[in-house]
Amino acid sequence: MVKIVWGDDQVPIYLCAWHVLKVWRLCSMEQIKDNEVQRAILDDLHTIMYMPIEPNESIKAFMTRGKNKIIESFTQHLPGDSWTQYFWTYYFQVGA
Questions:
Q1: Would you say 13 and 95 are in contact if contact means Cβ atoms under 8 Å apart?
Q2: Are 32 and 81 contacting, i.e. CB atoms less than 8 angstroms apart?
Q3: Each residue's pLDDT tens digit, 71-86
Q4: pLDDT tens digits along 28-57
Q5: CA-CA distance, 61 to 84, in Å (whole number)?
Q6: Mind listing the pLDDT tens digit for each residue in 20-29?
Q7: Rg (Cα) of the chain, in Å, rounded?
Q8: Distance linking the first and last C-alpha atoms of the chain
Q9: What CA dihedral angle connects 27, 32, 33 and 35, to 10 degrees?
Q10: What are the sequence ranges of the domains in the chain?
Q11: CB-based burial of residue 87 (10 Å sphere; 0-12 exposed, 13-18 middle, 19+ buried)?
Q12: SS3 content of the chain, % helix, strand, coil (to 5)
């Protein structure tokens, strides 16, 4: 959605963590029917969202580490699920 509105104009977009978590929670409630899986995914995403950058870690390495943790979580809990497609479409197309 952000990319649709702002396009590729190199405008920095700063999203409020509370709003991002709210959208993830609402979308997960629609797309993930198993409450335990939903909770596990949201817990993992919350942890990743607040994951600290390591000393001397480049931004690229940090982003790769976060992306790998998300892949690991989704593979464990939701192999091939629509939530994975939603997340990849809206959060990993920008700066992929």
A1: no
A2: yes
A3: 888 888 876 667 777 7
A4: 888 888 899 999 989 998 898 889 999 999
A5: 22
A6: 889 888 988 8
A7: 14
A8: 16
A9: -90
A10: 2-91
A11: buried
A12: 65, 0, 35
The amino acid at residue 4 is I
The dihedral through the CA atoms of 24, 29, 30, 34 has a sign that is positive
- Confidence (pLDDT) at 96: 44
Which structure tokens are listed for 56?
Answer: 């001397």
The answer to whether residue 58 scores a pLDDT higher than 90 is yes
* DSSP-derived secondary structure for 39-58: HHHHHHHHHHHTPPPPTT--
**For residue 95, which amino acid is it?**
G
Query: Tokens for 61?
Result: 């390495």
